[in-house]
Amino acid sequence: MKRQIPYHGWCFVCGTENPYSIGITMFVDDNGVLTSEFILNEAHQGPPGHTHGGASAAILDEVMGLVVWAAGHQVVAANININYRKPLPLHQPLLAEARITEVGERKIISVGEIKLADSTVAVSGSGVYVIAPHLFEASRLKGAAS
Fold first, then answer.
1. Most buried among 3, 78, 127, 140, using CB within 10 Å?
2. CATH number of the domain within which 29 lies
3. Which one is catalytic: 29, 30, 61, 118?
């Protein structure tokens, strides 16, 4: 069974309040695998007809980080590595997937991929996410006060 990950306000990748957001919707399944199906357009263009590498890196950072959040850890990115294998075309279905590969005392490692419609891996990555709940205390206190 899949559950939708909530949108994050002004988030550049998934925020519904941000008019410049990429606007992807993400789901996590019972095995902890996060997925998102989406289509990119000219707002995300780099080379003509293809996605800017920064947009695909942002998407992977978001899905790799949110799979860790979905597992109950408040984290921030400490390091991400992105491997570009094929250009991502505009106006075609794409699939992002992410999963946790290692959980340590202070850091969590996850991996992610963006696949083309034929399941070819176009962009892959890995991320090291550091547990940092103190960075989110202000927003939690703000939410409790309202």
1. 127
2. 3.10.129.10
3. 61
